[in-house]
Specification:
about 190 residues; mainly alpha; 8 helices; about 70% helix; globular
Length: about 190
């Protein structure tokens, strides 16, 4: 069965067809949610809610866009909602008090790519922190577009479809995000 046949069968109540659809997209949905939310717990919540919504609303899918675009739109909307809720709630700091004084939890994460070179480790940690801070300062839409393009490898047209906008609007948003990233990472690039 191709994807359209699976969707039609699932719309008619075929549980096996729905499970096959979920299996074909489960890892990419989880990866996208994790990249956007930076939290395994929040990503898993979005993952579950996304497939629950797909199950409830699959009969409304009309094939006017690809199933992936429809699914990613659901995921990105849920991620945007989660990010908005996090902005309302006070975000937990990565800095904790220890016996030795304040310590950033991110410093305890080993950088396997930097190897045994302390200078490279330091630069890598600085760069990683700077990227994370800059991504956090982007608007939720800019961050989504930036991450879908650079981390997920999606094309601008698909990003526009997922966000319910035009390819040109996605391109402009990516440009703004990239400019902010370049300014923030000026000394590293």
């Amino acid at each position: 069965m191709d994807e359209a046949e699976l969707i039609r069968a699932a719309q008619k109540g075929d549980q096996d067809a729905f499970e096959r659809l979920v299996r074909s997209y489960d890892q990419s949905v989880l990866r996208l949610a994790h990249r956007l939310l930076r939290s395994p717990e929040d990503a898993l919540d979005v993952y579950q809610e996304a497939f629950l919504r797909v199950f409830k609303n699959l009969n409304q899918f009309r094939f006017d866009c690809s199933f992936q675009t429809w699914l990613y739109r659901i995921v990105t909307n849920l991620c945007l909602d989660a990010m908005r809720k996090k902005k309302v709630r006070k975000e937990e700091s990565s800095v904790v008090d220890t016996a030795e004084g304040p310590r950033d939890r991110m410093d305890t994460v080993e950088d396997v790519y930097a190897g045994a070179n302390p200078q490279r480790q330091l630069l890598s940690a600085e760069l990683k922190g700077k990227i994370a801070r800059t991504l956090a300062e982007l608007t939720p839409r800019e961050r989504m577009v930036f991450e879908m393009r650079h981390y997920e490898g999606m094309r601008l047209r698909a990003i526009g479809d997922v966000l319910g906008t035009t390819e040109e609007a996605a391109k402009n948003c990516l440009f703004r995000a990239t400019q902010k990233m370049r300014v923030a990472l000026g000394e590293f690039v």
